[in-house]
Amino acid sequence: MGQTVSVIVEGGKATAAPPLGPALGPLGVPIGKVVEEINKKTASLKGMQVPVKVIAGPNKTFTIEVGKPPTSALIKKELAKEKGSGKAGLECIGSLSLEQVKGIAKTRFDSDEENYVKQVVGTCRSMGVGVGSETFVKEEAIRRAEEKAKAEEAKKAAAAAAVAPVEGQPAAAGAAPTTKAAAPAEKGKEEKKKKQKKGK
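and the corresponding structure tokens:
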């Protein structure tokens, strides 16, 4: 077996520039042909970073092995999204049909058997991606429940804020009569003094 070079290239857009070109140089293989072959094999994976192995054989022959992109990369490509949701389970950034999910399973695992499809569905959910309308319904229900809980909390907080001043009033109200009661008493003393003076 000859030397092997492993690189990551953008699907369908490999060039002789670094990192591929310099890595292939020591193998003695025709770089132009290698690049052309890689682009043919990765044409369907445009926009994704794809692992590629170039195995050098005798007489400048070569074999190319194209690895599989991560499931998450395939999902993002299918949705035309740059990234998944940061609030998986609470936020839905898009939805894939079951047929699309099966297509991703075929690309990633070369099979759309149930266990592979389930793996793709699991990755979808962890990224905040719905599978069919059922997940959208579920996501919407979760969102509404969260909004309702927040509204209830806000309502309770507002009620507590409104009750607080009322609870403080008895003390203030209790102080007022004391002041009012004191005033007539002082007035009575003054009148008594005046009468006493007059009596003299």
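(Above: one complete record from the training split.) Strands lie at 4-10, 49-56, 62-66, 94-96, 129-131.
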